TrEMBL record:
<feature type="region of interest" description="Disordered">
    <location>
        <begin position="119"/>
        <end position="138"/>
    </location>
</feature>
<feature type="domain" description="TNase-like">
    <location>
        <begin position="4"/>
        <end position="125"/>
    </location>
</feature>
<dbReference type="Pfam" id="PF00565">
    <property type="entry name" value="SNase"/>
</dbReference>
<keyword id="KW-0540">Nuclease</keyword>
<dbReference type="GO" id="GO:0005737">
    <property type="term" value="C:cytoplasm"/>
</dbReference>
<dbReference type="InterPro" id="IPR035437">
    <property type="entry name" value="SNase_OB-fold_sf"/>
</dbReference>
<dbReference type="GO" id="GO:0016787">
    <property type="term" value="F:hydrolase activity"/>
</dbReference>
<keyword id="KW-0255">Endonuclease</keyword>
<dbReference type="GO" id="GO:0003676">
    <property type="term" value="F:nucleic acid binding"/>
</dbReference>
<dbReference type="InterPro" id="IPR002071">
    <property type="entry name" value="Thermonucl_AS"/>
</dbReference>
<protein>
    <submittedName>
        <fullName>Endonuclease YncB, thermonuclease family</fullName>
    </submittedName>
</protein>
<dbReference type="GO" id="GO:0004519">
    <property type="term" value="F:endonuclease activity"/>
</dbReference>
<keyword id="KW-0378">Hydrolase</keyword>
<dbReference type="InterPro" id="IPR016071">
    <property type="entry name" value="Staphylococal_nuclease_OB-fold"/>
</dbReference>
Length: 138
């Protein structure tokens, strides 16, 4: 059973699309940002994407809207940190791709297109490789 919307404090950043929150009951929850996919740590912009999410959310109050659980038992959610939609902001900054397989928010595609046009973040790289392709076995 997926929990309802909850408030928490962001206490950890794993990468550009995964963070850990501390709920008011002191329970830690690992959150995978819904509808986006950030570069892996060993990909170009992986470190910058993690830093971007950290700047957005670390130590801040987060409003978490759970969608589902993933194969690793993480809560997949939309997260706003101090009123900023972290999922959308990561795409807008060029620090994550829209994860087409799971994306439902059509606004994310507009934000990604704007980031591409402006060559922000990973779009400044001559041939950015989406993480879902990077993760495929060679």
């Amino acid at each position: 059973m997926l929990s309802a919307v909850f408030l928490a404090t962001v206490v950890g950043i794993s990468d550009g699309d995964t963070l850990t929150v501390l709920k008011q009951d002191k329970q830690q929850v690992k959150i995978r940002l819904a509808e986006i996919d950030a570069p892996e740590k060993n990909q170009p912009f992986g470190t910058r994407s993690k830093q971007s999410l950290s700047d957005l959310c670390f130590g801040k109050r987060a409003n978490v809207i759970p969608h589902t659980k993933d194969q690793y038992k993480r809560t997949v959610a939309r997260v706003s940190c101090d009123g900023i939609d972290a999922n959308a902001e990561q795409v807008s900054r060029g620090m994550a791709w829209v994860y087409k397989t799971y994306a439902r928010d059509q606004n994310l595609y507009r934000l990604q297109s704007e980031a591409m046009t402006a060559r922000r973040g990973l779009w400044s790289h001559p041939s950015p490789t989406p993480p879902w392709e990077f993760r495929k076995p060679k």
